[in-house]
Amino acid sequence: MSRSRRLGKTGPARRMGEPQKAETQMAEPRTVEATFDGEPLSAPVGSSVAAALIGSGRPAWRTTRDGERRGVFCGIGVCFDCLVEIDGESGQRACMIPLREGMEVRAASGPSRGAHNGAEVVE
Fold first, then answer.
1. Helix, strand, or coil here: 21?
2. Which residue among 23, 59, 64, 95 has the highest number of C-beta atoms inside a 10 angstrom radius?
3. How many angstroms separate the CA atoms of 95 and 58, rounded?
4. Cα–Cα distance between 76 and 66 in angstroms, integer?
């Protein structure tokens, strides 16, 4: 039995190193249109809000109470560095939510300096 039959290869044989010919042309990926702080935001269907923001050149979109910039850190919903407001609902993890058509995304900012867990900190 030939090697190609053992490996389950069907169709015309090709030499090792020859590029495989594309039989069909790939279709243009569909995009989703949304806004970020009032500016247009678009990304391929299935992209997370965080992926769309990074893809649009925004590596950071919120600030901590100390004014430090934050964006995606873990990308799996554990660290909460990527928080945004989506359609009026604050505290949303951008890395966990798919971008939807017409979504209104806004940057989140940390509480004012001196606030910690809802209690005033005396300095």
1. coil
2. 95
3. 14
4. 24
Which is it for strands 83-86 and 89-93: parallel, antiparallel or unpaired? antiparallel
- Contacts for 102 with CB less than 8 Å, ≥ 6 apart: 33, 34
What is the CA angle 17-20-24, rounded to 5? Answer: 170
Q: 10-residue block means of pLDDT along the chain (123 residues)?
A: 52 60 65 97 97 97 90 95 96 97 88 37 37
Spatial contact of 70 and 60, defined as CB atoms under 8 Å apart: yes
Contact 13, 7 (CB under 8 A): no
Query: Residues 56, 57, 61, CA angle at the centre, nearest 5°?
Result: 95
Token pair belonging to 107: 């940057």
